């Protein structure tokens, strides 16, 4: 079990090394349309002081 935990730790550590953005970087302003047809952009949500949580999971 300890070997698996160490392996998962290093796997997680290695994925952060290849992240496209670092903490504090300014990201590109991209937009999307939600399922109700409303358009959103990151900068608009930040200006409105909204919390932004991205989830690219899905249900299969």
Describe the structure.
This protein is α+β, with helices and mostly antiparallel strands and 60 residues long. The protein has a domain at 29-54. It is 37% helix and 10% strand. It has two helices and two strands; from the N terminus they run αββα. It has a two-stranded antiparallel sheet with strand order 1-2. β1 and β2 form a beta hairpin. The protein is elongated and about 45 Å long. The model has no long low-confidence stretch (mean pLDDT 83).
Key terms:
60 residues; alpha+beta; two-stranded antiparallel sheet; 2 strands; 37% helix; elongated
Quick overview:
The chain is of the alpha+beta class.
Number of strands: 2
Summarize the helix and strand pattern as letters: HEEH
Mean pLDDT: 83
First-last Cα distance: 29 Å
Question: What fraction strand?
Answer: 5-15%
Structural class given helices, strands, pairing? alpha+beta
Low-confidence stretches: none
Q: How many alpha or pi helices?
A: 2
Strand arrangement across the biggest beta sheet: 1-2
What fraction, in percent, of the residue positions are helical? Answer: 25-40%
Which value, in Å, is the CA radius of gyration?
A: 17 Å
Largest sheet: 2 strands, antiparallel
Quick one: overall form?
elongated
């Amino acid at each position: 079990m300890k070997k698996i935990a160490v392996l998962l730790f290093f796997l997680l550590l290695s994925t952060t090394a290849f992240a496209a953005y670092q903490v504090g970087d300014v990201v590109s302003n991209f937009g999307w349309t939600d399922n109700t047809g409303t358009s959103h952009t990151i900068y608009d949500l930040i200006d409105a002081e909204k919390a932004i949580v991205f989830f690219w999971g899905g249900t299969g």
